[in-house]
């Protein structure tokens, strides 16, 4: 199947530790349902709690990109049914097998004839595989007979030409499963219209239309109602369009996530194809395997590992993962003809669940919404009281309501207008789009990250990466190029120079050396159509196979002359792999290959130039260890190759006993020690230095020799100098593993390099760092790395070398296995957080200004300068268009000049509060002055429509202030707000669209928007009012702010009250 230093205190955030990692000084963290620092593996009850606490006007839109808890329960229920089905089948076959043994009869049904071009039909093959019917398989002649019926060569695979693949797809289907169609645009229009406030406004518009026509006639009475309805419709369409585009981005990203690439054998060659191109997919039977262990828990629910063999337990189910060993599978079922395909056809894929930032923003939106509702309630109460007490004047200056004289229709019409204003204030006050801005910026970031070779599998990982304080990185392929070549070789009797000079080795010595290399490998050698020799496998395997070819190895001949009896696959715990090979003369050789010092430790002899085993003396052992250390110090990966003879009659003949047979690993004869060069990636040192400058410590965790790890760490800048290369800065995995938990926690922050580490050592390091309050990112590529990837705050798997298990457990896949791409992910993570903060600052400024202006005006004069239609337009600028403009800012180098974002740091920083206060106070002051003194200030005393002109200037100046302030929001803590603005085409486009639409609304839609055409002088006044916000922002940024967040003062006071109570 077919591992520069930064200085850290005891905690990266000082005393403010995460609740989930340690203890916290303030217990009220746990009181808030919105305080979830990590949604990774969060309990369902915790997720349900914050949903219930949120103030939501449109639940279908607000919770669209959160985990669908009901669907998750349905998925689990479906899995339980399928597991029960699998268990029932297994029990039935055990019963039938027992009955067969007792009665001596065969209970399997005879094979039915196939159809079409193949000797077996789709229904029969699916039945055998799904029911795991071993009897039926044996009747067909076992795996060999089945492959004949399928016209598949067990060694060369299928032909793989277009005609062959077309026939197979026609006969057996394609490896896809029915997926629910993406939502249509009209579905998003429907969801956008579910907003409670918009529904109320539509009802109000209908009432206003009816009353207006009745009281003022058809010619003028329809203006107010149609104006509000049109504004609501515009909000719905723009919102739906934005949401629809966002959903298309997520669909494309999900397609990328599902498009897994794997190796298959076609026409005798191993080629890499997409999972969709498998024409006989994931359910199958084992052709041949060695120590193959499969984790079937995803289908059966049982956590134990199942060992597979080709005779008694050959069936392999899609959706399961290889835990150990390797093998070749004959695929028997594709798409919906597999167990996993049935499940995936029944349960649609989710979008990944909510993110911590999304949850926190729901908390912010709820708080602001409560304030907005309160304000709207106050405005409604004041306007109604003023109206019925006769203090609300009409256009002619007379009271609008006179008891006993005003008609009921007029009263009803006026009340509808008052309610409309109050509801519109709620629309502006409740930032429904604030939590959705997270998914907008994440969708944008995830799409751009694909270009930076990072595929995000879990939404929250993207933002969590911005909080990462440490990265535990592998060495091979991540910090190095993964382009390996054998550059040095020692045998027991000489150092070979050059290392591939076959003339320096006696033929019998070469013969046994290449025999071991040819059999003890997961790679392969084949010739292309042009006759060129091609090698496949891992980079280490390819390097050794290429070296052996230069020594004269004939891969195919060696594999056909002798047979592998038993295999011990290489794993990262043992650091070695072995194979027992039986020659035609029944001689058995047990070959071992692995970490040089470990294999050498098992050697009691070495092969000399006379092809005779010689006792390994102390001096010879010391000499070879010095050679290993010398190569390791020059950053070479050291691999030793050894063998031993074994008596053929001692090898178990029973397959079950053979599968449990442990290959002898003592009394080995050393054949060779090779040094493999894997150079550092060119830009990795700069990337490591950039991380250190950004407050992110890079730690190398590698299975390689400690000296090799040290040499690479010095080259990459992880270790600054030789003087840093001492314990615990440089430590071996076994040493770290031997410490108690408390001791590991004490030294974990000092560790920069861990050599000869196992995946469990990596897991222990991650756990210790998390207990110290760090936000940990971990890279991994092997199946055994899965626990560490799962435990880490951000698991980063490798796209090229990573196993499917590692990718499944990771949050982000680094497609090019490059550490530079990991650093780019950090930049994007910080960019997500920064963009959300920009949007919050912009939106809250609009919120505060609009609310204060309307409240003060309503209480003092009984009228509001900003009408319902105008407020809806402001809401559109603030909500949808503002999010698009500010949430899609690309990352800048400035983001890497600051420390990581603390997961408990307030969303609204002191700098944001300062900027918000300065801009909001300016807008409120200027616009209220215009509201109360505008007619005289603007010289409108004797001009017609003076009141409408004044209100239009207020509305126009208010919108233009937001346009200017949108530039300020781009750079909350920088003076040059225009830097890089032209590179963000979306921002420039939205600013231009907003300006054009504002001109249209003021100049051409006066009837609908309650505006009047302004002359150029008034336009210049409005632009002048807005432009002052730029120099004002510069002055504001000179005002120092305290380091302690404003919110912290409230927490301290609350904690003191709680303590005293």
UniProtKB/TrEMBL annotation:
EC number(s) on file: 7.2.2.10
Keyword Metal-binding listed: yes
Top-rank taxon: Eukaryota
Disordered, as annotated region: 1-34
GO cellular component terms given for this protein: plasma membrane
Limits of the Cation-transporting P-type ATPase N-terminal domain: 142-213
Function noted in UniProt: Catalyzes the hydrolysis of ATP coupled with the transport of calcium.
Protein name as annotated: Calcium-transporting ATPase
Organism: Brassica campestris
Upper lineage: Eukaryota, Viridiplantae, Streptophyta, Embryophyta, Tracheophyta
């Amino acid at each position: 199947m077919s591992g520069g230093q930064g200085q850290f205190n005891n905690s990266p955030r000082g005393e403010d530790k995460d609740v989930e990692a340690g203890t916290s000084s303030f217990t009220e963290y746990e009181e808030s349902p919105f305080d979830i620092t990590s949604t990774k593996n969060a309990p369902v009850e915790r997720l349900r709690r914050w949903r219930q606490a949120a103030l939501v006007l449109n639940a279908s839109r607000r919770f669209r990109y959160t985990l669908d808890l009901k669907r998750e329960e349905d998925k689990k229920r479906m899995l339980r049914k399928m597991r029960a089905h699998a268990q029932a089948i297994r029990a039935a076959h055990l019963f039938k097998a027992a009955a067969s043994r007792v009665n001596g009869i065969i209970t399997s049904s005879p094979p039915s004839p196939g159809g079409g071009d193949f000797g077996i039909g789709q229904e029969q093959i699916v039945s055998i595989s799904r029911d795991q019917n071993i009897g039926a398989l044996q009747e067909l002649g076992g795996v060999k007979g089945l492959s004949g019926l399928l016209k598949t060569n067990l060694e060369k695979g299928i032909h793989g030409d277009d005609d062959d693949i077309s026939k197979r797809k026609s006969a057996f289907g394609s490896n896809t499963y029915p997926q629910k169609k993406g939502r249509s645009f009209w579905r998003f229009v429907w969801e956008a219209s579910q907003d409670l406030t918009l529904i109320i406004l539509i009802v109000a518009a209908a009432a206003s239309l009816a009353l207006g026509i009745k009281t003022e006639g058809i010619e003028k009475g329809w203006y107010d109602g149609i104006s509000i309805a049109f504004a609501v419709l515009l909000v719905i369409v723009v919102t739906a369009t934005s949401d629809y585009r966002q959903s298309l981005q997520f669909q494309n990203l999900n397609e990328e996530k599902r498009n897994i690439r794997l190796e298959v054998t076609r026409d005798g060659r191993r080629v890499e194809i997409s999972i969709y191109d498998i024409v006989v997919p994931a359910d199958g039977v084992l052709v041949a395997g060695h120590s193959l262990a499969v984790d079937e828990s995803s289908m059966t629910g049982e956590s134990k590992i199942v060992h597979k063999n080709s005779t008694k337990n050959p069936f392999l189910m899609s959706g399961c993962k290889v835990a150990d060993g390797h093998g070749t599978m004959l695929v028997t079922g594709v798409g919906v003809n597999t167990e996993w395909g049935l499940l995936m056809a029944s349960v649609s894929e989710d979008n990944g669940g909510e993110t911590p930032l999304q949850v926190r923003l729901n908390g912010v939106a709820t708080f602001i919404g409560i304030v907005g509702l309160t304000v709207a309630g106050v405005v409604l109460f004041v306007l109604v009281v003023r109206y019925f007490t006769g203090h609300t004047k009409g256009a002619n200056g007379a009271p609008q309501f006179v008891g006993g004289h005003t008609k009921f229709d007029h009263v009803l019409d006026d009340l509808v207008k008052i309610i409309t204003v109050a509801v519109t204030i709620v629309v502006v006050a409740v930032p429904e789009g604030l939590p959705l801005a997270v998914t907008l910026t994440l969708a944008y970031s995830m799409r751009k990250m694909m270009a930076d070779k990072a595929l995000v599998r879990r939404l929250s990982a993207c933002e969590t990466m911005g909080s990462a304080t440490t990265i535990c990185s592998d060495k091979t392929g991540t910090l190095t190029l993964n382009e390996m070549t054998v550059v040095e070789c020692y045998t027991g009797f000489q150092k070979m120079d050059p290392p591939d000079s076959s003339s320096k080795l006696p033929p019998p010595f070469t013969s046994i050396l290449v025999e071991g290399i040819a059999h003890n490998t997961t790679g392969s050698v084949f010739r292309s159509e042009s006759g060129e020799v091609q090698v496949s496998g891992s980079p280490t395997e390819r390097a050794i196979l290429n070296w052996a070819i230069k020594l004269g190895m004939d891969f195919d001949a060696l594999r056909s002359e002798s047979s592998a009896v038993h295999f011990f696959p290489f794993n990262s715990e043992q650091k070695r792999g072995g194979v027992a090979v039986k020659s035609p003369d029944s001689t058995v050789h047990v070959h071992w290959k692995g970490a040089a010092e470990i294999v050498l430790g098992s050697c009691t002899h070495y092969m000399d130039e006379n092809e005779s085993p010689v006792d390994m003396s102390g001096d010879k052992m010391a000499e070879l260890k010095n050679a290993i250390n010398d190569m390791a110090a020059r950053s070479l990966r050291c691999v030793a190759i050894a063998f031993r003879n074994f008596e053929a009659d001692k090898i178990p003949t029973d397959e079950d006993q053979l599968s449990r047979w442990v290959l002898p690993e003592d009394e080995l004869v050393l054949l060779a020690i090779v040094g493999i060069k894997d150079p550092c990636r060119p830009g990795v040192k700069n990337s490591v230095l950039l991380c250190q400058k950004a407050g992110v410590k890079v730690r190398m965790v590698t299975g390689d020799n400690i000296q090799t790890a040290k040499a690479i760490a010095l080259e990459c800048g992880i270790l600054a100098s030789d003087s840093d290369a001492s314990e615990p800065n440089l430590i071996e995995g076994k040493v770290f593993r031997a410490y108690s938990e408390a001791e590991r926690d004490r030294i974990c922050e000092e560790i920069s390099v861990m050599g000869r580490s196992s995946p469990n050592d990596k897991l222990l390091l991650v756990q210790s760092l998390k207990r110290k309050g760090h936000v940990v990112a971990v890279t991994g590529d092997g199946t055994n790395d899965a626990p560490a990837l799962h435990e880490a705050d951000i698991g980063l798997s490798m796209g090229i070398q990573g196993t499917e298990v590692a990718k499944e457990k990771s949050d982000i896949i680094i497609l090019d296995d490059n550490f530079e791409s990991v650093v780019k992910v950090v930049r994007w993570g910080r960019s997500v957080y920064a963009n959300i903060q920009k949007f919050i600052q912009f939106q809250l400024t609009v919120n505060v200004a609009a609310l204060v202006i309307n409240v003060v005006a309503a209480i003092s004069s009984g009228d509001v300068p900003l009408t319902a239609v105008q407020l809806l337009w402001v809401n559109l600028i603030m909500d949808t268009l503002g999010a698009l403009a500010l949430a899609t800012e690309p990352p800048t180098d400035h983001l890497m000049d600051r420390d990581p974002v603390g997961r408990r740091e307030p969303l609204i920083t002191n700098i944001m509060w300062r900027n918000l206060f300065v801009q909001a106070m300016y807008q409120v002051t200027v616009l209220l002055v215009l509201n109360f003194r505008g007619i005289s200030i603007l010289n409108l005393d004797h001009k017609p429509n003076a009141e409408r002109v004044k209100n239009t200037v207020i509305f126009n100046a208010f919108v233009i202030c937001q346009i200017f302030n949108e530039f300020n929001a781009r750079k909350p803590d920088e003076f040059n707000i225009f830097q890089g603005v032209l590179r963000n085409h979306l921002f420039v486009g939205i600013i231009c669209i907003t300006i054009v639409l504002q001109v249209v609304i003021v100049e051409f839609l006066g009837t609908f928007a309650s505006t009047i055409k302004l002359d150029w002088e008034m336009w210049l006044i409005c632009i002048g009012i807005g432009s002052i916000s730029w120099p004002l922002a510069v002055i504001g940024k000179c005002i120092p702010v305290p380091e302690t967040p404003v919110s912290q003062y409230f927490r301290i006071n609350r904690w003191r009250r709680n303590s005293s109570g």
